Amino acid sequence: METTANSLVTVEKSKTSKIDQVDFDNLSFGSTFSDHMLVCDYKNGAWENPKVVPYGPVSLDPSAKIFHYGQSIFEGMKAYKDTEDSTWLFRPLDNHKRLNISAKRLAIPEIPENYFMEGLKTLLKVDEKWIPKNEGSSMYIRPFIFASGNGFHASPANEYKFMICLAPSGAYFSGKVKVLIEEKYSRSANGGVGFAKAGGNYAGQFYPTQLAVEKGYNQVIWTDDNTHEYIEEAGAMNIFVRINDTLITGPTSDRILDGITRKSIIEIAKDENINVEVRKLTVSEVVTAAKDGSLKEMFGAGTAAVISPISGFGYKETDYDLPELKEGFASLLKKRITDIQYNKAEDKFGWRYKL
Amino acid sequence: METTANSLVTVEKSKTSKIDQVDFDNLSFGSTFSDHMLVCDYKNGAWENPKVVPYGPVSLDPSAKIFHYGQSIFEGMKAYKDTEDSTWLFRPLDNHKRLNISAKRLAIPEIPENYFMEGLKTLLKVDEKWIPKNEGSSMYIRPFIFASGNGFHASPANEYKFMICLAPSGAYFSGKVKVLIEEKYSRSANGGVGFAKAGGNYAGQFYPTQLAVEKGYNQVIWTDDNTHEYIEEAGAMNIFVRINDTLITGPTSDRILDGITRKSIIEIAKDENINVEVRKLTVSEVVTAAKDGSLKEMFGAGTAAVISPISGFGYKETDYDLPELKEGFASLLKKRITDIQYNKAEDKFGWRYKL
User: Fold this and answer.
1) For residue A210, what pLDDT is reported?
2) A352 found inside a domain
């Protein structure tokens, strides 16, 4: 057992490493895990000191509230290697802030910033060799908190676990995605938890997404639950639409996640002198634009998928294809943001964070 | 290792029992667990045979999808002892049916009826001594299914665990409850998962309920997320309102749980020649009735809380008290349903199920 300089985070190193078993040239998304993980317990009204320990199973009582009442939240982040072998994070304090926004809504105790940041940095340093160096690959970082306290009473748990796991990963989607604009099912309610990265927001999307996949689509674009007329988000991504030369995305709300890639893309697009509109966007506006040819591009934006170009969408049993653009906004913005993330270009926004 | 007659369920008995440590005269709700539990794994596309094993911790990979994507569903049931020491269940096949309705919406594989019923009966027989005999106590039964498969891709798991745990329990609420009619937060969306017993439906209620508790209320009555004008349910209970001599409850929908206590109460009330209306119920109707004195009773109905009389409600910063009734519908209906459950009266509906 060794402790780090600041002594907030203790480190217990694994006796063996699995790194030699990993094919870094053929990484899928989020299915390979590094040698260590961060664990931090909430007990007796306080977060205990974070610990880096060997990656391994979590043991819970069958009555732990995570199994019954869905009290769980998470974040998605990435670490990037540059050509000098330095490691970079992207706006990590925003992830910490958002995790606590989710925590509050789910009645989970907030995690102090230094526990999050020192825990994260210590873990990444211990498993730094695991960060992929291949083009398009990165270290996907999954901080999460769940209710580990026990009992069948439907009320908040008295114990929680904050953990961080590391998954060296390739692309989330391979190629362009075809989406279905949803007319029946919904992702979130007004006054609900749609803005939080709460576990339950994801489980509710799986069945409607399966139905869409059976029809030949990759993802669902969610609309508001009352009229199904307003475009919200795609579950794992925020949605951007380009009509003529204007880039449009919906405003965040209590139904839509305040995506870090989303807000970064808005700033980069403005910096590129692209006309950006953050406003409510109707399905009929998008359909009309698809019909008259003014719909030039659609893409999703999120940490896992980065920028994911959409090849076409389905709506009311009709498919609409988008044009093939060589030099669209999506490819321009993706290059700008990944160049910042991988330390290939100037970071005028101050988003890069050196490990 | 012994197997039951039907050989579907294997039994591994605990070498020791915790039963002597339990004070059956002072049971709280859902915090004492019996010696055994049922475990049934879904792997390689099929549910494996259910096993009764000693109650003990569940070990999961940190990437198990239950921790990240909220894929979990549950049921609440009870077993009752009569004065002859026979054990009774109440409409257990309805719980199995509803578990599979929840499973479908959460993209969880459905559990076969015989796995559910034989697993449940075998477990109850092994731990039959744990079923409380005290007035007002019962064995709370918690069947649940969660995603045990691994990976950070936001998609359904490929492995699941179906489990049943037993918690000898006293009352869920002690005394009458005071409720707050919600004007801002919501429990469910049109096209969402509100009708399912999904974990995420509960986590989302904790924070608004905490806010209500801070104001002196016990529970929140949820309203629709669009207008907050229609009364839906109380999260752990369906809601009944008595205006003059008419008993009113909202219709089930994709936002409201199809409660087994709810539908039983409707049938018993009809059998008592009470005028029952299953229709949309507005907040303004209830407030008007409270003001003019025609609001006689409100109560919640659910497996855990049985029938829980409401002493008053808050709405728009005003509190409305309900009259103290000696012989109201709530006490009559509670007696009728618990007499059936505890085998104290004829069961003309065929709901009782002998173990």
Assistant:
1) 97
2) no
CB contact under 8 A, A152 and B30: yes
Using a CB-CB distance cutoff of 8 angstroms, which residues of chain A are in contact with residue B63? 30-31, 33, 142, 165, 167
Please indicate, yes or no, if residue A350 is contained in any of the structural domains: no
Q: Residue A173's pLDDT is what?
A: 76
Which of A35, A191, A80 is closest to B226 using CA atoms? A191
For chain A, the 3-state helix, strand and coil shares in percent, each to the nearest 5, are: 25, 30, 45
Give alpha helix (H) positions in B47-173: 66-69, 92-105, 113-126
The separation between CA A154 and the C-alpha centre of its own chain, rounded to angstroms, equals 28
Rg (CA), chain B: 21
From B79's Cα to the closest Cα of chain A, the distance in A is 16
Predicted confidence at residue A194, as pLDDT, reads 97
Q: Which of B169, B196, B226 is the last residue of a domain?
A: B169
- The answer to whether the Cβ–Cβ distance between A29 and B152 falls below 8 Å is yes
Q: Do residues A193 and A148 both lie within one domain?
A: no
pLDDT of residue A229: 97
Closest-approach residue (CA) in chain B for A153: B30
Q: Supply the DSSP string of A121-186, one letter for each residue.
A: HHHHHHTGGGS--STT-EEEEEEEEEE--B-SSSS--S-EEEEEEEEEE--SSSS-EEEEE-SS--
The pLDDT tens digits for A292-346 are 999 999 999 999 889 999 999 999 999 999 998 888 999 999 999 999 999 999 9
For the record, the structure tokens of B196 come out as 């399912």
Domain endpoint, select from B145, B169, B193: B169
Predicted ipTM beyond 0.85: yes
Residue A300, token pair as written in the block: 């999703």
